[in-house]
Amino acid sequence: MNFSIEREKLLKPLQQVVGVVERRQTLPVLSNVLMVVDGDTLALTGTDLEVELVARIGLEQSFSHAEITVPAKKLLDICKSLPEESQIQFILEDQKLLIKAGRSKFSLATLPANEFPNLEDAVGQVSFSMNQGYLKSVIDRTAFAMAQQDVRFYLNGMLFEVSTNLLRTVATDGHRLALCKAQIQCEVEKPFQSIVPRKGVLELAKLFSDVDADISIALSGNHIRVESADLRFTSKLIDGKFPDYERVLPKQGDKNVLADKTEMRQCFSRVAILSNEKYRGVRLRLESGNLTTVANNPEQEEAEESINVDYQGGELEIGFNVNYLLDVLNVIRSDTVKLQLADSNSSALVTDAEDDSASYVVMPMRL
Amino acid sequence: MLADINQILTPHPWQQKQWLDLQARLERGQLPHALMLRGTSGTGKAHFAVALAQRLLCEKPVAQAACGRCKPCLLIKAGSHPDLLLMEPEEAGKAIKVDQVRGVVEFVSRTAQFSGYRVAVICPAEAMNVNASNALLKSLEEPGSRTLLILVTHQVSGVLPTIRSRCQVVDFPVPPRSEALTWLQGSLGEDAGKAERLLNVAGGAPVAALALSQSDWIGERATVAQHWLGVLTGKRDPVRTAESWQGFPLLELVGWLLAWQVDLMKVAAGAPAQVVNQDLLGDFSAVQRQLNVDRLHGSYLHLQQVVRMLRGPGNPNPQLLLEEILLKWSQVRA
Q1: How many CA atoms lie within 13 A of A172 on its CB side?
Q2: What distance in Å separates residue B138's CA from the closest CA in chain A?
Q3: A153 vs B106: CB contact, 8 Å cut-off?
């Protein structure tokens, strides 16, 4: 291995790859980054056995094929600390990687590339492409509802369901559910479901957010692989069955409430201050044209606020975890929010009044 | 330690029957999702478990064993195969903690990196405490497809019944003496007498015998035995003896004492032929008349308690522990 590259070209991809590698690794080879030079490309690979990220960087000229792994964090620190616009040269000599730039010289320990558990190229069972910003938006609108370290391990992630020309993302923690639809170009015989683990979902939204670029997504029984021009991200899936979310969506809601989103959010966050710190319960009282929110806590303190809403119908009193409502209001984009309720024991369906691509279900609380 | 295994293993000669049986079940697609390898310590069960895991993960097995050349095999040798999890206590002889077991649960809930099996080996299963065992139950009941959990146990009574009932048991009896001797001589490359002595000490378990030959203080065994019998006959002071035993690894030492007491009980019951430590038979017979069998049994139960204590989370004072053992022991004299 003997090649050179500008610091600026290497730094950003290297940072992204190192971001995937976990600090606390039991296996030394996993805290390393795999460097493969092939022709005029340099590929950097990092993995924590759950997610893998490959960054491809174009080189000025063609070099002979070589591969090696070196400690990721140290390589990044070296490249970061070198002066701007320096030309960095990498030479492999006697199982040591020599790094030269200007008058600095470093020699890094290496491990052979065949000990690195990188993924082979796999064929996706379902593949399609979509805009990066679009994918990020469908993830952002649902990711908050994913469970964290739930014993029902299939909830600690996000369901990606692909049917013909439609991608659905669904997340739930058993108390609330978020569902979002995206238009894609794809032909499948029957809906294909994959549960992407929490870490993979968050990394996806972080890595791919360029609204001007497309990515291709491939799903197989074991992996999800997302590829842009210079990055390839792969995550393992959760091996389980996601709950049947269709059955959770309330159908019989006949009490429709339209409200101003900002006003409602501010009202909820003020009232939330005096709700029970653990259970976060608030009481919503609906009358014609008016919504009153009440919270009280074990110290007998009380908060109450009314807002005007567009509602015709009988009176209804229902309790909710206010954090769940606020989470939903934070991801709704238009100014008006729509609540669909049935009675005080049934879940609420919350949607954007101007956009029905995302729906949210929040279970009520008995207060 | 299992994690230090950096080569491709094949089962020991005396494990051929179990190996062929599992291979046949694998070929018929009838491999269960959880296996419990059961038998006395030192017969190579962990070795067998790792060999089986390697065979399952290999892409192109040769003659029913891992090939050692494909990518998965190379990763196994490097200790970085993503679909293989080897779980053992963080410190030898201590418990497997619930956090470690949660790692297994997460491992089982994720899809495999390669398109083959996911294999987790837990060794020894009785080292899991109650919380750890309970955390494993759900995964042990229904892991995903093409998943194998291999639990190795030296003492099945120490494993929760709810764990045991979720596994298919494969038994590993102590191998026939001739087979064990041949293997041990082959591994030691030394005279037959030494192999025979070691095998005696190890109770016929060949892998344990091999480990003994590498331990530094096997030479001290005769001295320890003389001291121990001296305490019984009143020729040695228990507290002083405890002090002189300070340097020995406690768990192994107590293991020896346990084995000797079992032998003494056999002598007392008139079955000297059954004695495992035949080299000490003369000494045992000599003290036989001075024994109170009831108190001998009491001391045996106490030693078992000590083993549990040493395996547990606590950190007992070795001097006090040894004194207690030896004081109890000195009272066994009738």
Answers
A1: 22
A2: 9
A3: yes
List chain A residues with CB under 8 Å of B74: 114-115
Equal fold, A2-115 vs A126-247: yes
Collapsing DSSP to helix, strand or coil, B247 comes out as coil
Q: How far is CA B144 from the centre of its chain?
A: 29
Residue of B nearest to A25 (CA): B80
Domain A126-247 has CATH 3.40.50.300: no
Nearest to A222 among B80, B106, B115 (CB): B115
Assigned CATH for A2-115:
3.10.150.10
CB neighbour class for B314 (10 Å; exposed up to 12, middle 13-18, buried from 19): exposed
Would you call B113 and A49 a contact, using CB atoms and an 8 Å cutoff?
Answer: yes
Give the pLDDT of residue B36. Answer: 96
pLDDT digits (tens, 9 = 90+) for A144-202: 999 998 989 999 999 999 999 999 999 999 999 999 999 999 999 999 999 999 999 99
CA–CA min distance B52, chain A (Å): 20
Question: Tokens representing A363?
Answer: 């279970």
Each domain of chain A, given as residue ranges in start order, spans 2-115, 126-247, 249-362
What's the rounded mean pLDDT across residues B217-231?
A: 84
- pLDDT per residue over B137-160, tens digit each? 988 988 888 899 999 998 888 899
For residues A266-270, average pLDDT: 97
CA of B106: which chain A residue's CA is closest? Answer: A153
CATH number of A249-362: 3.10.150.10
Is-contact B114 B72, C-beta < 8 A? yes
What pTM, to 2 d.p., does this model score?
0.84
Q: Judge if the upstream peptide bond of residue B124 is cis by omega within 30 degrees of 0.
A: yes
